[in-house]
TrEMBL record:
SUPFAM superfamilies noted in UniProt: MFS general substrate transporter (SSF103473)
InterPro entries: MFS_dom, MFS_trans_sf
Keyword Transmembrane in record: yes
Domain called Major facilitator superfamily (MFS) profile: residue spans: 22-432
Protein name (Swiss-Prot/TrEMBL): MFS transporter
Keywords: Membrane, Transmembrane, Transmembrane helix
Superkingdom to which the source organism belongs: Bacteria
Compartments in which it is found: Cell membrane
Residue stretches spanning the membrane: 23-43, 63-85, 97-117, 123-144, 156-178, 190-208, 242-264, 284-301, 313-331, 337-363, 375-397, 409-426
Topological relation to the membrane, as annotated: Multi-pass membrane protein
The keyword S-adenosyl-L-methionine belongs to this UniProt entry's keyword annotation: no
UniProt-listed PANTHER family: MAJOR FACILITATOR SUPERFAMILY (MFS) PROFILE DOMAIN-CONTAINING PROTEIN, PTHR23528
Amino acid sequence: MAPESPAPALDPLAEPVDRVGRGFIAVLALTNLGIWTAFFTPIQFLLPLQVEAIAPASKESSLGVVVAVGAFVSLVASPLAGAFSDRTSARLGRRRTWVLWPTLAAVAVLALMGGLTTIGGLVLGWALGQLTLNASYAAVTAMLPDQAPVAQRGTVGAVVGAAQPLGVIVGSLIATLVPGDNTAADGQRARYLVVAVVVLMTAVLFVARMRDPRLERDRIPAFHLGTFSRAFWVSPRAHPDFAWVFLTRFLVILGTAFVTSYLLYFTRDVLGRSPDEAGDTVAAILQFYIVALLVSALVAGPVSDRVGRVKPFVIGASLVCAGAILVLSFARTQEAATVAAVIMGAGFGAYTAVDLALISRVLPSAGDRARDLGIINIANALPQVLAPLVASVWITALRPSGYDVAYQSLYVAAAVVTVLGAVLVVKVRGVP
């Protein structure tokens, strides 16, 4: 039997043309799964339980502060870490270096999070968690435009995008299967430790298995603080497609963030579940959401590659998400909320698969992929700052009229924002 031909050499600054294999896709998806598990398990399950145990009377506003401060940190961490990753010449490679060390720091932070017993401690702890996890995520995300050719990005984006909802599944399993005390401020220790193990194992897999060519020092521009700082502003006039993609992603993520930020409390205050039942109810609803999302993502990505078009899928998926939010605004039973979740899953699955391909095709510079993706990630993170703050003020203001009114009006507004994000995708001119 003839020996296998060696893999073609990779140029870290060239536009990739060789198709990536299943091993690359699998490792990239699993690494994303670890990171999203570390993001979603605290946000969806552990932090709400800790906050309620510490400050039950102000749970909405307190959770809003914890999540918003963490998201604000991610606004800075992702593009800054991405920019340094782009300029890294370590032997381990640009991306693997920035996956390894921030992940080790994130593991240490997660191990400490379960023992925090004050709102101030949670604010600081989750801020550090977002800092370290986003530093790693910036490098992981850059691997798609680094190594996957344009014609394959819908397919790769679909598999990678599927890792996001699977992170929610893993988080729900951790929250339900790993022992914990939901009434104690420090009752989530074991669950945080399991999250730390998951993200560590997937990062080690990435470092061990990914090819990541070294960027030679003579190909890195000289560092000047002023030039480096100004580069974080990507001119909408010079790069209009990048600007429109940023804005549309911001609007769609903002609309959906209004739903996800307070889903646990929605099951408590609108669907009438007890504290012990709420987590199981959210997990049951999310199971249907995730199945729909996985099917939708794995279908939409390859179909987009096959037909060679991206924008119609992004627009259609965003409109489906808006419809799902509208359905949820009228849901008063677990069954109705589940229907909304299935519709949302179908829409957001297609969106996560194809929008990543859209983003990768409007990046301004091959030498700054991680930085520019970090800037785009602000469109993911900023809604996580704004949505909890707006939602907490909105719900608190309308709570005297009843939680039904508060959440219904909030979700109708979220649907309108999402529709706007869908419509403005037509402004992207350089991508079919």
